[in-house]
Design goal:
- It contains 8 helices and 9 strands.
- Helix 2 links the parallel strand 4 and strand 5.
- A 7-stranded mixed sheet has the order 5-4-1-6-8-7-9, with helices on both faces. Strands 2-3 form a two-stranded antiparallel sheet.
- It is globular, with a radius of gyration of 18 Å.
- The longest helix is centred in the middle third of the chain and has 15 residues.
- With about 230 residues, it is α/β, with parallel strands linked by helices.
Length: about 230
């Protein structure tokens, strides 16, 4: 089985003084979140799409989905967690409570505010998560990366040819992710906020899926302006 987890648990503090989390802001004539869900909804590979949001926004999220998506029976809205991995684990607990899982079952996790994900990226995440157990969507770094441990002086300048910028989706075999997460200490859980890093830090292979420059994350007000420009071009 294959599940999608749309991570909409953030409150968007970096978006500035807005009355609602950024995933509910309008992009064109629809909320950002709806654009994102639609990309997964039209893909018939998924047994269920799980949207995870702050508890106080669950009813609003359900209302939006009912308004914009005709048949929303395959979409479930549940509460997210305090941290990204907490939110993913909430999705896994929901899946375990409602399905009989095998070692081959896959979860595709995606930021709710990356609305321009493509069909190819979704398909390749499914394929390589099945083949390798874990995959991460990335694009080559176009800028030189500087490492500074104190924020004042350069410690190293890694070879840019080996550097990538992480995007989402990140996709995993569900039971393997749960197994690796459950053996982490509380300190490790705070440090390993990226699920792919949980795999790589345990010497588990994480395959790289080629992302797209347009697969942007809408974090700041400028990003929303860029996203509206992309939407008009499409």
């Amino acid at each position: 089985m294959i599940f999608a987890a749309i991570l909409a648990g953030g409150i968007g503090t970096r978006m500035g003084n807005v009355e609602k989390p950024k995933q509910f802001l309008l992009l064109g004539d629809k909320p950002i979140l709806i654009h994102t869900i639609e990309k997964f909804y039209i893909n018939n590979a998924f047994n269920e799409i799980i949207v995870l949001c702050p508890k106080q926004w669950i009813s609003h999220t359900k209302d939006l989905i009912s308004r914009y998506i005709d048949d929303s029976n395959c979409i479930k809205v549940i509460e997210g967690g305090n941290l990204r991995n907490d939110t993913i684990m909430n999705a896994i607990r929901y899946i375990e409570d409602n399905y009989e899982l095998s070692e081959e079952d896959i979860i595709v996790t995606h930021d709710s505010v990356r609305p321009f994900i493509t069909h190819r990226i979704i398909e390749e995440n499914i394929k390589y998560a099945i083949d390798y157990g874990a995959c991460d969507t990335v694009i080559p770094s176009s800028d030189t990366i500087i490492e500074s441990k104190d924020g004042k002086f350069i410690n190293s300048v890694p070879n840019r040819q080996n550097m990538y910028q992480g995007q989402t989706p990140q996709s995993f075999r569900i039971l393997k992710l749960k197994e690796l997460y459950n053996v982490l200490s509380n300190e490790e859980k705070e440090l390993l906020t990226d699920a792919a890093k949980i795999f790589s830090s345990n010497d588990e292979q994480v395959f790289l899926v080629e992302g797209e420059v347009s697969n942007i994350k809408i974090t700041y007000p400028h990003d929303l302006k860029v996203a509206n420009s992309i939407l008009k071009e499409k």
